[in-house]
Amino acid sequence: MRKPIPRPARLTPETTAVLTGIGEDAAFGAIAPPLHLSTTFAFEAVEREGPYAYSRAGNPSRDLLGRALAQLEGGAGAVITSSGMAAIDLVLSLLGPEDLVVAPHDAYWGTLRLLGARAARRQFRLALIDQGERPAVERALAERPRLLLIESPSNPLMRVIDIADLASRAKAAGAQVAVDNTFLSPALQQPLALGADFVVHSTTKFINGHSDVVGGAVVAADRADLDTLASWAGTVGAVGSPFDAYMTLRGVRTLFARVERQQLSAMAIAEFLEAHPMATAVHYPGLPSHPNHALASRQQRGFGAMLSFELSGGLEAVRRFADALRVFTLAESLGGVESLVAHPQTMTHAGMARPAQVAAGITDGLLRLSVGLEHVEDLLADLAAALDAAKAAGAP
Ligand code: PLP
């Protein structure tokens, strides 16, 4: 048996992301951790279970990813789920029919759909509010909710919510707080340090970072909450596969380097769009013109690689713009090494009723960009050409 390489007790998050599981293989001293696909594990004897018994309940490859994410988010532990939606649903499993959930009216559409469907089945009560509006928040908290769900920055409008402020007021009202940290990843924001009880992730996005795994995670601040969630995830089988966990941990190793580079390009693109006459509004918290710029500067370690903007000329301009792109790809999802553009109204938020779209600010001309690792000059040239192509439809 080889001993794991001893590591210093305290490491920076960047190093933790790179080194989790490296050099720990007791059998052969493998540097990269082995992938444990086995569904079942031998008992040592009758009534003597080893560290693992059955992979729905626990698996070494999945646990390694959980360890990495828990350390990066500063939590007691993590449950690795089969998707981001499964991660959100896992948190919702804590609720009963009398419990009230307060969530943002402009959240990711999949989240809204899940919340609405479960509330319609009377699994909890639901209030969707504009969390940036103080009176709406006060009214909702006066109802003594059991859970407050925050998405910051929001998908797709990049609204930033004051997590520390909302978390402390929610806790005073007796609620637990869950934050969807998908858009920033733990490299740029740590909601537990701001007072949240749970962080949820679609690891499909920045954490895996290569658009080849659908996965999710819940990180809990408290050990008892973690145990409850882990036990339920094992009971219903909402857990992620070992292979997906292995792939995702591979993505985690480069998370900081990717996100740091990607957000530099995002900033350059936001500035370029802000100066372009075809973009009538640009939503990027890194721009001083963004209404939550000061809050984002305080709350986040960076502004991230997601942004959205309003293209002049409506749907026809959007069509011309998308057809002209040669480096960006028109696709849903985000957070990969490749740059993507999405039209929320007809893609990610297409299932949302038109009045709800309007209330959430999802207009004909809104486009969302996920900025990847291509050279920023290629990205800017691609956008410039596509904006030129859109001009015929929408010269302001
Ligand atoms: N949360 C946010 C903010 C998202 O953007 C998404 C997906 O786009 C999800 C959750 C759901 O994640 P998944 O697609 O992995 O289920």
N-to-C span: 70 Å
| CATH architecture label of the largest domain | 3-Layer(aba) Sandwich
Q: Please bin the fraction of helical residues.
A: 25-40%
Q: In sequence order, what are the helices and strands, one letter per element? A: HHEHEHEHEHEEEHHHEHEHEEHEH
- Name the poorly predicted regions: none
Bound molecules: pyridoxal-5'-phosphate
| Total of DSSP H or I helical runs spanning 4+ residues | 13
Label the overall shape.
globular
Instruction: Provide the CATH topology of the largest domain.
Output: Aspartate Aminotransferase, domain 2
Biggest sheet, spatial arrangement of strands: 1-7-6-5-4-2-3
Rg, Å, rounded: 22 Å
- CATH H-level homologous superfamily name of the largest domain: Type I PLP-dependent aspartate aminotransferase-like (Major domain)
Counting helices, strands and paired strands, the structural category is alpha/beta
Beta content comes to 5-15%
Description:
The protein has 396 residues and is an alpha/beta fold. It folds into 2 domains: 240 residues, 3-Layer(aba) Sandwich (Aspartate Aminotransferase, domain 2), CATH 3.40.640.10; 139 residues, Aspartate Aminotransferase, domain 1, CATH 3.90.1150. 38% of the residues lie in helices and 14% in strands. The chain is built from 13 helices and 12 strands. It has a 7-stranded mixed beta sheet with strand order 1-7-6-5-4-2-3, sandwiched between helices. Helix 6 links the parallel strand 4 and strand 5. It is globular, with a radius of gyration of 22 Å. The site of pyridoxal-5'-phosphate (PLP) has 15 residues, from helix 3 and helix 4.
